[in-house]
Design a protein that fits this description.
- There is one protein chain.
- The two termini are 18 Å apart.
- The protein is mostly helical and 243 residues long.
- The protein has a single domain (2-238), classed as Cytochrome c-like domain (Cytochrome Bc1 Complex, Chain D, domain 2).
- Helix content is 49%, strand content 12%.
- It has a two-stranded antiparallel ribbon with strand order 1-2. A two-stranded antiparallel ribbon has the order 3-4. Strands 5-6 form a two-stranded antiparallel sheet.
């Protein structure tokens, strides 16, 4: 009986524990793949800013309508640039060899990044770029130092400048801030919402059935709770006259 109760408790609390991911230094992405408005905004931002270089080759375009709550016609009109055939994956036109020549490395596919790295990691990464004149591309990243990816969202955020602190006799980046004169088209809160929407969409792409799985999970946990209560009452009835 105790084992059954323990399993139910583990089921109730393990989802939140494993969903957090990452370490204490990561920002909380607060992803919610059931938020279709966020997924729609994230899909648009992803298609317009990320898919210039990155693909999501394990996701089909025609799998988006159900998760985003829009028609396939809307997907074709707002997200797909160029020709499209039924069943096409979310690939980019840029060849990997060309990308390697231009950027020094082929941009990774982003289909499973939110699962392999964690949504909090993705969200923190998008909020950790800063201007670095010493870097080959003019940008650096607090979370992933010397990343070969430029800050493609700088027009939205502005130009983040690093703040330094001395540790062990050397200057290290302690934080970043956007000077008012270098502000982007979005406020800080709006930019955080935009990067959260992108992260939310990437979490959906990494596991399209996640929202349905979570919905079913609630019913399963509810069943286990009711079953545990009934099993306990049945046990009391069987052993009531036995001393």
């Amino acid at each position: 009986m105790k084992k059954i109760a323990l399993c139910v408790l583990l089921g109730l609390f393990s989802g939140g524990a494993f969903a957090a991911g990452g370490g204490g230094d990561l920002m909380d992405a607060q992803v919610d793949v059931s938020d279709t408005a966020s997924l729609q905004r994230g899909a648009k931002l992803f298609a317009n800013n990320c898919m210039g270089c990155h693909s999501a080759e394990y996701m089909r375009w025609n799998a988006l309508p159900e998760g985003l709550g829009v028609s396939m016609e809307t997907i074709e009109e707002t997200l797909i640039y160029g020709s499209y055939q039924q069943g096409d994956m979310m690939n980019v036109a840029m060849r990997g060899a060309d990308a390697a020549d231009w950027f020094g490395a082929e941009p990774p596919d982003l289909s499973l990044t939110a699962r392999s790295r964690g949504a909090d990691w993705v969200y923190t990464y998008l909020n950790s770029f800063y201007r670095d004149p010493d870097a080959s591309i003019g940008w650096n990243n607090q979370l992933l130092a010397n990343s070969s990816m430029p800050h493609v969202l700088w027009r939205l955020q502005g130009v983040p400048e690093p703040t330094y602190e001395e540790q062990g006799g050397e200057l290290l980046v302690a934080g970043i801030q956007v000077p008012e004169a270098q502000a982007g088209t979005l406020s800080e809160a709006e930019y955080h919402q935009a990067t959260r929407d992108i992260t939310n969409f990437m979490a959906f792409v990494a596991e399209p059935v996640r929202a349905k799985r979570q919905e079913i999970g609630v019913w399963v946990i509810g069943f286990l709770v009711v079953f545990t209560a009934l099993a306990y009452l049945l046990k009391r009835e069987y052993w009531r006259d036995i001393h």
